[in-house]
Amino acid sequence: MPYWTGHGGITPPGGDNGNPADYQCAAGGDAGVGYVSYNSATGINVPGQAIAVQNCINNNENNGMTGTKALWWPDLRTNQTVATLAIMVRF
After folding, report:
1. Is residue 28 situated within a structural domain?
2. Which of 19, 62, 79, 84 could disulfide-pair with 56, CB 3.0 to 4.6 Å?
3. Which candidate, 71, 66, 76, 67, places its Cα nearest to that of 13?
4. In this structure, is residue 30 part of a structural domain?
5. CB-CB neighbours of 77 under 10 Å
6. What pTM was computed for the model?
7. In this structure, are residues 61 and 25 in contact, taking their beta carbons and an 8 Å threshold?
8. C-alpha angle with apex 19: 78 to 46, nearest 5 degrees?
9. What residues are paired with 34 via a beta bridge?
10. Cβ(5)–Cβ(77) under 8 Å?
């Protein structure tokens, strides 16, 4: 599905941090974990979102938000309003 960038854009705060697979904190900075995280205690892969939220809160990079709002999300739109103006000139 095509998408367009909204007001907030698709670049995280602070720009490119070099870790595109990791979640980004709302105030900028890397959350240190991606979609899946390896749990070394159990040897099992676990969802990384809850760990990323906690990392952002612990590093105070959450803009005072809790839950998934502590993470940065791209502002994507599936529709776009466009106005087109055309002028035809003949010589």
Report:
1. yes
2. 62
3. 71
4. yes
5. 12
6. 0.69
7. yes
8. 85
9. 22
10. yes
User: Residue 47's closest CA among 71, 13, 17, 15?
Assistant: 71
Please say whether the beta carbons of 84 and 60 come within 8 A. no
Q: What are phi and psi of 49, to 5 degrees?
A: -60, -45
Task: Identify whether 64 is part of a domain.
Answer: yes
Burial class (CB in 10 A: 0-12, 13-18, 19+), 70: buried
Q: Is 58 within a domain?
A: yes
Residue 37's pLDDT is what? Answer: 81
Residue that has been written with the tokens 């502590």 in this structure: 70
The total number of structural domains that make up the chain: 1
User: Residue 43: is it exposed, middle or buried by C-beta count within 10 angstroms (0-12/13-18/19+)?
Assistant: exposed
Residue 72 structure tokens: 């940065």
| Burial degree of 54 (CB within 10 A; 0-12, 13-18, 19+) | middle
User: Which of 3, 58, 56, 49 lies closest to 28, judged by CA?
Assistant: 56
